[in-house]
Amino acid sequence: MRPAGTFDVSYAEDMAIVRTRLQWxxxxxxxxxxxxxxxxxxxxxxNVIILMGITLIAVFGLHITTGLCGQINLGQSAFxxxxxxxxxxxxxxxxxxxFLVVLPxxxxxxxxxxxxFGAPSLKVKEFYLAMATMAAQFIxxxxxxxxxxxxxxxLFGGPNGLGVPPANIFGFFEFGTDFKxxxxxxxxxxxxxxxxxxxxxxxxxxAFVAIRDNDLAAxxxxxxxxxxxxxxxxxxxxxxxxxxxxxxxxFYYIQPEQFTLHNSVWYLGxxxxxxxxxxxxxxxxxxxxxxxxxxxxxxxxxxxxALPYLPQNITYVVGIILFAIVVIVFLIYEPRGLxxxxxxxxxxxxxxxxxx
Amino acid sequence: MKSRIFKIMVLGMLALSLLAMPLxxxxxxxxxxxxxxxxxPAPKxSxxPAPKxSxxPAPKxxxxPAATRTVKVGYIAxxxxxxxxxxxxxxxxxxxxxDWANETNYIPGLKVEMVSGDDQYQAxxxxxxxxxxxxxxxxxxxxxxxxxxxxxxxxMRRNKTPLVNYGGGNFSIDPPGWVFVTVAMYDTQQFAVxxxxxxxxxxxxxxxxxxxxxxxxxxSMGTSSIKPGMLYAExxxxxxxxxxxxxxxxxxxxxxxxxxxxxxxxxxxYMALVTPPAISAVKTGIAMGIPKEKxxxxxYVTFMWGAMLRAVGNxxxxxxxxxxxxxxxxxxxxxxxxxxxxxxxxxxLQRPVGLAALxxxxxxxxxxxxMKRAAATTGADKITGEDIYKALQTxxxxxPGTMVPVTFGPDIRDGAREMLIYKVKDGKIYLVGDVDKPxxxxxxxxxxxxxxxxxxxxxx
Lengths: 356, 460
Known about the structure:
The structure holds 2 protein chains of 2 kinds. By secondary structure, chain A is an all-alpha fold. Chain A has helices spanning 11-15, 21-36, 38-41, 43-68, 76-94, 99-118, 126-145, 147-150, 178-199, 203-213, 215-220, 225-251, 261-274, 279-306, 312-315, 318-333, 337-351; strands at residues 162-163, 168-169, 173-174, 253-254. Chain A has a domain at 18-260. Chain B is globular, with a radius of gyration of 25 Å.
């Protein structure tokens, strides 16, 4: 619902993402806030925010595959690994200054691998597709660990992992500190977020939504299921590959154990909590769950200190317990996620102080 | 028209903001903190337990000089999670070293404060734990378990901060960088064990070589010793390396792996595992009729020995072999007496039943030695991480009296290459052999064996 008096007088206005003056001001304020944030965040929270940004890019991808097209993907973390290893190997071989060239290649490689594992989506749905994509998680990680046996190369580092140089733009500028990396990640979050947002409004995005809502009806309307389902996997995993590459260049080190099924499940949970099919919901869900995890991480030692009779290995699962509770609560009470809550809030705010 | 002008203005501002991003980044005012000298900062709370006073005797303090500088040492480990119990003791052990050093003015003009970060024993959280304490600008780090060294290697190099890690995989020290490892590496440990079996196997009674088997998870700790171990065993007349069973990381049910091992009828089953899977594997083995004495515990499991005994009962581990570069508390050396004095006074914990206190104490002592040497060269008021890094490389045959001697060098980062073998008898641990004659797992060095094999393969 749009506020009274807000209407379009041209096609350009109809297509615009930001419509009103207030929205423009809000966008400007958000950008200003993002730019200023590292000056008062502190190093620890800067780290949390950078990781949040990287996660957000991966979850944007999941939003396209699962949220828009309805193809469940439980291997997003493994596809991040593909992107991370692609970027690590290529920058180690060519030099870190090729980062800007390598970054899209990491996305494309992850997209190709994702498309291969997404192929079963043509025959199976829902729970069975979840199983198929979960297989990607195990197969990719296993192959990375045992690359020397399967491929006869130590290129992937096996269980030891790989060192990764900091991202660098053609030798002119190195993203060698958290402060610099923050701006790179945030710039990419904005670009990828805009891509995800616009995807919904394109022919491809509408085809995805049609498939999600009723694939038989979509096929009858002339949508090529084979093409669009695989395309959703390609695009979703492309995002994961970009996120993986950023992860690698942020930590300077990757190993298969960093890309766990646990992470893939968390990403899906973020989508559920935020609201499937909404880019804003994806942002809400990722921010909410990441902050929840950070909160649990910081609270756990105090719980240990306050309740010394509790075994210490219990306190570290506080985050997992909170995550599970939040997901259950949202599935029961607000299956449309935080995005829906936000829409309700906006509608109420516009009518305030009058009730519906 | 008005609206269009407004939009153009906002878009212009946004474009300028985006342009400003790299410019701001280029300014780099928030760059990673360089390990430069800092004036004694106020201590900040840490999630680790604070030491409590204890009546036990300790070395007498000497008066500190008027001007002292306080530097910070970071400690990264699993304060919560599966290793939490051991971490509590390990951190207390390391902190006790520095509290003792502060009180006795061990490094004149320098006081050390510890700050800690919790990695929850998850590889993905190690960097987060590092970032948590990086803001406090520690000039050196301590950490365990071994995997942390791999993750932190590059960031330590970039920030010119030395890390003294309890253990480490080969990746963390090859090429030699800012990571210094205090216990024998995984492959060196296995070499020492193979050597020990070869020297002690009663071939006259058995009439055949000893059958050696390896059981591990599919990770760096589990698999890095297999290939060099197999190659080395080929050179040993009294050891047959009959099997290496590798289960996916996280496996707790070892039934299929133990079943296959049983078919090979090994005399020794070397478990390159952490405590929970090791307990599970031994219980499975016992249930399948494998004598419990055949299982050998190494590396971190050794330090969880107390917890393991409590968890599985003495009868399960009775007769088993245990290996580590560290001395057990039962070994009475002057170094061990000094440890007890420091532990009782500064740790705030009861005497440990495990060995985890030494997991913190020994690397702490090694780092303290490096800091002392650096302060002597540079001056306590100017000491930096780079100075400590250089000083650590000068440590040779440093004997804390609680572990085998430690030696680093320009190209040496694995400080200990020797092992002590213990045996459990009547629920207690006894040293097998002489404390002054540890088994050398570094001669030949595993890297030499691998290089020779690679050269031979290339020749073929």
